[in-house]
Automatic annotation (TrEMBL):
Gene: HSD11B1L
Keywords for the protein's UniProt record, in alphabetical order: Membrane, Transmembrane, Transmembrane helix
Stretch forming the signal peptide: none
Transmembrane segments: 6-23, 30-49
Source organism of the structure: Branchiostoma lanceolatum (Common lancelet)
One Pfam family, short name: adh_short
Protein name as catalogued: HSD11B1L protein
Cited InterPro entries: NAD(P)-bd_dom_sf (IPR036291), SDR_fam (IPR002347)
């Protein structure tokens, strides 16, 4: 009898499922907006239940290495860590900018502020960064991996890569981009882990919404960011399995209104529309600092990125529809 009952229920559910599929194909817009409504409601509940009890005093005296700090989110995180009384070591390629950022960080209240001018795509500069942190601080509480870069210098050169892949055979650019935006993150984390294990420290990784779902025009970035999510997700569970008290927080930012991002996105079709939903840099930096301190597994900023990332739960055909018609420029 039980097999008959469950078999009947299976047939019934399958029939209903096919019926829903075909009917929703004819009512796509209702399904899309209904799904978005459900996700927004879920996001609201998530925000309500995610009150984390962040204590700003926990940052005072903490030692922090932040990469990619000459501008944008990295620069703003430097200032906010400084206001909280941290000891800071920052990196970027432009030494003149690093000097300015360090001077301002000291004026804002950093207990210490130092810099390493270097290219994180080079192994020797990664090694020098962690060695300097060890020499200056003797310990490391936070490793904030935020740098980005490529062999393309100008905004116009970078914007030219924001296109459909279409058999682009420039593998040198691709390899360089992945080395700077993926391999160097792995290298820095590997070098810093002995110090972080001693302090029960924190790794904060600047990922991307493009590391959760795929968008047109960003294939090279998606490659690197999916790699970050995969590696640091594996590292997180390995640290848990071996009972190492080092947290890994993966940041999933949407479009953040930095000067560089704003200049580049204007060159995309529909770029002006993206600017309307851009999150402010100060709010973004604070959210990341808070999430790292409270050992948050994934940090979504602004909150709508959590909603968008949930479309992975939908059937493939619906994911494609949403990406192509709602969430991409």
């Amino acid at each position: 009898m039980s097999r008959l009952v469950w078999g009947g229920l299976g047939v019934l559910f399958a029939t209903v499922g096919f019926g829903v599929y075909w009917s929703t194909m004819q009512m796509m817009s209702w399904l899309v907006w209904g799904s978005i409504g459900v996700l927004l409601g879920a996001a609201g509940l998530g925000v309500y239940w995610s009150r984390d009890g962040f204590d700003p005093e926990s940052i005072r005296g903490a030692t922090v290495v932040i990469t990619g700090c000459s501008s944008g989110i990295g620069e703003e995180m430097t200032y906010q860590y400084a206001r909280l009384g941290a000891k800071i070591l920052i990196t970027a390629r432009r030494e003149n900018r690093l000097k300015e950022v360090v001077a301002k960080a000291k004026s804002l209240g950093a207990q210490e502020a130092h810099y390493v001018a270097g290219d994180m795509g080079k192994a020797e500069d990664c090694e020098r960064t962690i060695q300097t942190a060890k020499e200056k601080f003797g310990r490391l509480d936070y490793l904030v991996l935020n740098h980005a870069g490529s062999s393309l210098g100008s905004v116009d050169e970078r914007a030219a890569k924001l296109q459909t892949w279409d058999q682009d055979l420039d593998m040198d650019f691709y390899a360089d981009f992945v080395d700077i935006n993926l391999i160097s993150y792995v290298r820095l984390a590997s070098l810093a882990l002995p110090l972080l294990k001693e302090s029960s420290g924190h790794i904060v990784v600047m990922g991307s919404l493009g590391g959760k779902i795929t968008f047109p025009y960003f294939s090279y970035m998606t490659t690197a960011k999916f790699g970050l999510d995969g590696f640091f997700g594996a590292l997180r569970v390995e640290l848990m399995k071996t009972k190492q008290n080092v947290s890994v927080s993966y940041v999933v930012p949407g479009f953040i209104r930095t000067a560089g991002a704003e200049e580049m996105v204007k060159k995309l079709p529909g770029g002006e529309k993206m600017l309307e939903t851009a999150a402010p840099v100060k709010e973004t930096a604070y959210t990341i600092i808070r999430g790292g301190a409270t050992r948050t597994r994934e940090i979504y900023v602004p909150s709508y990125t959590w909603v968008i990332s949930r479309i992975r739960m939908f059937p493939g055909w619906l994911q494609d529809y949403l990406i192509l018609n709602v969430f991409s420029p």
